From TrEMBL:
Domain of life the protein comes from: Bacteria
One Gene Ontology cellular component: cytosol
Protein name as annotated: Pyridoxamine 5-phosphate oxidase
Keyword annotations from UniProtKB, A to Z: Oxidoreductase
Recorded GO MF terms: coenzyme F420 binding; oxidoreductase activity, acting on the CH-CH group of donors
The keyword Oxidoreductase belongs to this UniProt entry's keyword annotation: yes
Length: 170
């Protein structure tokens, strides 16, 4: 089993290694919707997604204000597909008002990370930026190594690993 320091380093590095997240939302009738979105994340673990107003997940985020996100290691990089490193967060979602300094700053970060497509998306009036604020989370390092994210300091994990039948799934 890797040291706690190695686990923490892997947790803190995973958001830099993957560029999109799996997004789970619920519509007004309570039906789940799975999607994905490219994202940027700040030092306080606030996650931002740039989404079309025409997508189902945008409507769901606007109506419920809730999302579950999954950041997961690429299959090609994982030594074992059943034990991919992953972070799951339960989030509160809030819309950044378009045209504000905060919206522009986050859009600039998207442009830095994703390049020339972002100016085109910025020009489309239906594209919106949501801030997904993690309230709780879980990091799975691999088989038998699942750690709770410290909800008071999202940069940290709570150890030792959690055990049980669901510790290999996030």
């Amino acid at each position: 089993m890797p040291s706690f320091a190695a686990v923490l380093a892997a947790y803190q590095d995973l958001p830099n290694r993957v560029h999109s997240l799996m997004l789970s939302t619920v519509n007004g009738a309570g039906l789940p919707h799975a999607s994905y979105a490219p994202y940027v994340i700040d030092a306080d673990y606030q996650i931002y997604i740039f989404t079309s107003g025409l997508s189902a997940h945008t409507a769901n985020l606007q109506s419920s204000g809730l999302a579950s996100v999954l950041l997961i290691e690429d299959e090609a990089a994982a030594p074992q597909v059943f034990a991919r490193q992953r972070i799951a967060y339960d989030c509160q979602a809030s819309l950044l008002p378009r045209g504000t300094a905060a919206w522009e700053a986050v859009a600039d970060r998207f442009e830095q990370r994703f390049g020339e497509i972002i100016p085109m998306l910025r020009s489309l009036d239906d594209f919106q930026i949501f801030c997904l604020s993690p309230q709780a989370g879980r990091f799975v390092m691999g088989f038998g190594a699942a750690y709770a994210v410290d909800s008071e300091n999202l940069n940290q994990l709570v150890g030792p690993p959690q055990t049980g039948p669901d510790n290999a799934s996030a």
